[in-house]
Amino acid sequence: MHDPSSTPQAADRPKAVHASAARPKSLLAVAVLLVLGVSAPLVARAESPWITHPAAPKADVEAAPIALQFRREVTLKAAPKTALVRVSADNRFVLFVNGRRVGAGPARGDLKHWRYERFDLAPYLKPGVNVLAARVWNDASMAPLAQVSARTGFSMTPETSALTWASTGPAWRVRRDESRTVAPGMAQVQAAVGRTFYAAGPPETLDGAKADWSWTATRSTATDWVAASPALAPGEASPWTLVSDALPHMAYTPAPIGRLARAEGAGQTTFPDAPLTVPANSEAVLLLDAGKVEAAYPALTVTGGQGARITLTYAEALYAADKTRLSDRAQVEGGQALGLSDTILPDGGAQRLYQPYWWRVWRFLEVRVKTGAQPLTLNKAERFRTGYPFQAKARFASSDPALDQIWRIGWDTARVDAHETYQDSSYWEQLQYIGDTRLQALITYAVTGDTRLPVQAIDAIEHSTLNGLPRSAYPSRSDQSIPPFTLLWIGMLHDYWMHAPDTAPLKRNLAGMRGVLNWYGGYVGASGLIKHTPGWQFVDWRPGLSEMPQAGEPPRPDSCVISLSYVGALKQAAQLETALGDPARASADLAKAKAAAAAVRAQCWDAGRGLFANTPEKKAFSQHANALAVLYDVADAAQQAAILERVTVRGKGLEPPPGITGVSYYFAFYLARAFEHAGLGDRYLELLDTWRGMLGKNFTTWPESDDPSRSDTHAWSAHPTADLLTLVAGVQPAAPGFTSVRVTPHLGALTKLDAAIAHPRGLIETRYVRDGDHLTATVTLPAGVEGVFEWRGRRMALKPGANRLDLTQAIAPAP
Question: Domain 257-387 belongs to what architecture?
Answer without folding.
Answer: Sandwich (2.60)
